[in-house]
Write a structure and sequence with these properties.
0% of the residues lie in helices and 26% in strands. The chain is mainly beta and 54 residues long. It has a domain of 30 residues. A three-stranded antiparallel beta sheet has the order 1-2-3, with no helix packed on it. It is flat and about 40 Å long.
Length: 54
């Protein structure tokens, strides 16, 4: 029988994240748009969105 327990949310201090590659970018792919993010120090528009169509 499966128990109905919920996961506990942990709050508190989070460790500092170190930068691994400052020239890396991120891309998010969704059903209606694509998003690209770059280092704000290297671009005037660090976050850009693009619509999609089929």
């Amino acid at each position: 029988m499966k128990s109905n327990t919920m996961m506990k949310t942990v709050t508190g201090d989070q460790p500092d994240l170190k930068m691994v590659n400052p020239r890396a970018a991120a891309i998010g792919i969704g059903s209606t748009m694509r998003m690209a993010a770059a280092n704000p120090d290297s671009d005037d528009m660090p976050i850009r969105t693009f619509g999609t169509f089929t």
